[in-house]
Amino acid sequence: MAVNDAAFAAAVARISALETSLEAAKSNYSECLDTIWMLLAALLVFFMHAGFSLLEAGSVRFKNAQNILAKNLLTISLGFLSWYSFGWAFAYGASDDPGRFAGHTQMFLDGAWDDKTIFRQWFFQGAFCATAATIVSGAMAERTQLKGFIIFTIIVTTVIYPVVVYWGWSGNGMLLYTAKTGEKAGESVSFVGPAYADFAGSGIVHMVGGVAALCGAIVVGPRKGRWDGTGESFAPHQVPFCVLGTFCLWFGWYGFNPGSTLAMNTKESAYAAGLVAVNTTLAPCVAGLLVFGLRAFVFPPKQLDVPGFCNGILAGLVSITAGCAIMKPWETVIIGLIGGLVYQTASSVMQLIKVDDVVDAFAVHGATGLWGVLAVGLFGDPDHKNGGNGLFYGGDQLKTQLMGVILMAAWTALLSLIILVPLKVVGFLRLSDDFQHKGADAVEHSPPKAYTNQATEGIL
């Protein structure tokens, strides 16, 4: 009997050890899957900067192509360093008793060795931060001094964008936190009711970048000769670059949106990523086609506008970024169509009030980003159990979405103006008229031309 008892005890111990080993293996496997998924998504988001570079280089005049590429390189380099120093801390560095405004721990990744998942999260979220800052560079192109641009970029990536991230994504900010008391205890809420919903950043990334871009374009002023009727051409000098850049951005968006599941270790997360990919495909198709048609048949000069088609595609992508994990595909088509209308309207208004936004950054990212956030408050069926709480289904999400865009836009505009206006006053922001006439490439770059083909010398 004693032998049987000993054998039974040994068998139980072995089974217990196997169960422990299996649980450890499952945990390790899930961690590896999540890390692979997030790194792949982050790389795709990082690749979007190749798209921004091509799009912006094609949109400016020949004499400033190299200069805008330099600004894109600076945005990435400065943006990630700013994210490393203080940006991550303000965005995700919550203490044991967090406030609702901003984080303040993990500066310079202090504490990451205690939780090594922070490394993958830092890289993924840092790529988003750089994206928000890059939106600004295109709007202010061809007439902005490098030193002023550098200062503004550092502020955007260190303070403006990270604080908004804390509000809406950290889980501790005023727009999204866990209630500790009351009937909502344990649930995600905001200070006005339901938790803010912005799956991949129509508002947090794109609207913030678009509002900062609008402030930059207004404060720095239009390019020399832009609105004085001299007949000088300000058309994009390389439409093929614009198209290639748009395709690169669209491709990278499949990391931006599906990657925002932040996990890939269950069938539920896999299903969510699949839905997001479908919606990320449909919205840009309908928005791009709508804008292409409107410019061909409705808006002067009523001709086929390929750069406009490109911006329409991007407008559709921005419009669905907030709700891509929530919407049914047919809802996505509607959101994309309205996003195309919002873009075209905003672009026309910018022309009417003579704000010189070289790449239509505000119309593409700011206006449609705002629409994308509000769309989540209108659409999204709660019965599908994937975060929908739209007004059209009897939900009360819209009030939080409205408060979110008001707070984010006001914060971004206020901080942007506090930085940009003094920079202009002290002469650190705008390039002189003579500098603009000669072109930044010839005045301050080596080599002095972005292209070596001498036949292009006459291109402005």
Which key phrases capture this entry?
single chain; mainly alpha; Ammonium transporter fold; four-stranded antiparallel β-sheet; 13 helices; 65% helix; 2% strand
Ordered list of secondary-structure elements with their pairings:
Elements: H1 2-59, H2 65-92, H3 117-139, H4 146-168, E1 172-173, E2 176-178, E3 188-190, E4 193-194, H5 202-220, H6 239-256, H7 267-297, H8 306-321, H9 329-352, H10 361-378, H11 398-425, H12 433-438, H13 440-444
Antiparallel strand pairs: 1-2, 2-3, 3-4
Helix pairs in contact: 1-2, 1-3, 1-6, 2-3, 2-4, 3-4, 3-5, 4-5, 4-11, 5-10, 5-11, 6-8, 7-8, 7-9, 8-9, 8-10, 9-10, 10-11
CATH third-tier fold name = Ammonium transporter fold
- Indicate the mean pLDDT: 93
Order of helices and strands: HHHHEEEEHHHHHHHHH
Strand content: under 5%
Coarse morphology: globular
Summarize the structure.
65% of the residues lie in helices and 2% in strands.
Structure description:
This protein has a single domain (2-456), classed as Ammonium transporter AmtB like domains (Ammonium transporter fold, Orthogonal Bundle). Strands 1-2-3-4 form a four-stranded antiparallel β-sheet. It starts with a helix and ends in a 16-residue tail after the last helix. Helix 5 (202-220) packs antiparallel against helix 10 and helix 5 runs parallel beside helix 11. It is built from 13 helices and four strands. By secondary structure, the chain is an all-alpha fold. 65% of the residues lie in helices and 2% in strands.
